[in-house]
Amino acid sequence: MTTTTQYIYARVSTQDQNVQQQVDVLTRDWPTANVFSEKQSGKSLDREQFNAMRDRLKAGDSVLVLSVSRLGRNTLEVLTFIDEMKVLGVAVHVHDLGKLDVTSPTGKIVLTTLAAVAEMQREEILDKQRIGIERAKAEGKYKGKQQTAATVKRCDEALKLISVNGLSKEKAAKAAGVGVATLYRYIKEQQKVAN
Q1: Which residues 6+ apart lie within 8 Å of 167 measured at CB?
Q2: Does the pTM of the predicted model rise above 0.85?
Q3: What pLDDT score was predicted for residue 193?
Q4: Residue 156: what are its φ and ψ, rounded to 5°?
Q5: What totals of helices (H) and strands (E) does the chain contain, helices first?
Q6: What is the C-alpha separation between 29 and 65, in angstroms, rounded?
Q7: How many Cβ atoms sit within 10 Å of the Cβ of residue 146?
Q8: Is the separation of the CB atoms in 182 and 147 below 8 Å?
């Protein structure tokens, strides 16, 4: 007789986020499941813990995730993974959809619709951003990507090293921990402000 196994997959995108909160929610539903969790971007499914779980999956097993976005942000990759799991005979349940198995016919319809809506929303956000930038450029208000306070501080340190110690821009940038191109942009911006 073949034994089936439950797996939980939890993911957050950055190191300062708390993945344990997801694990706690999911283990309340599946307390004996094998847990795989990681702090990795969702732009690709090629992630260490995700791959480790994927390698163990066999027919009859089940996976539980908090939301579709926890699997990943790449719609095509996520849909391909779900198709692979359906062929393999692995159920993929989404907690936020009432633990719906997205490999089922109903689940696939819901998943595809959600993915399409998410993609449409991303496109709308990018369109609004592009329109806003074009308007700001036309009004002479667009300043491009702004440097962070930490980058400004490092650039100021580099300028001191140039003026006080006589270092080249390249050596000063390296010593201050800032990219040379960033330092050059900063100097250019400072010259604009001064003129």
Answers
A1: 161, 175
A2: no
A3: 64
A4: -60, -40
A5: 8, 5
A6: 11
A7: 9
A8: yes
- Residues in the chain predicted with pLDDT less than 50, given as ranges, are none
Token duo for residue 26? 């999911």
Task: Report d(CA 38, CA 36) in Å as an integer.
Answer: 7
Residue 65 neighbours by CB distance under 10 Å: 22
Distance from C-alpha of 195 to C-alpha of 193, rounded to nearest angstrom: 6
Euclidean distance between CA atoms 181 and 173, whole angstroms: 9
Q: Which residue has the tokens 């809506």?
A: 117
* Short-list 16, 59, 61, CA closest to 36: 61
Determine phi and psi for 94, rounding to 5 degrees.
-115, 115
- Pairing state of beta strands 62-65 and 91-94? parallel
Half-sphere exposure of 143 (CA within 13 A, CB side): 7
Q: Quick: pLDDT tens for 131-177.
A: 887 887 787 776 666 677 888 888 899 999 988 888 888 999 988 88
Residues 6+ apart with CB under 8 A from 13: 39, 40, 41, 42
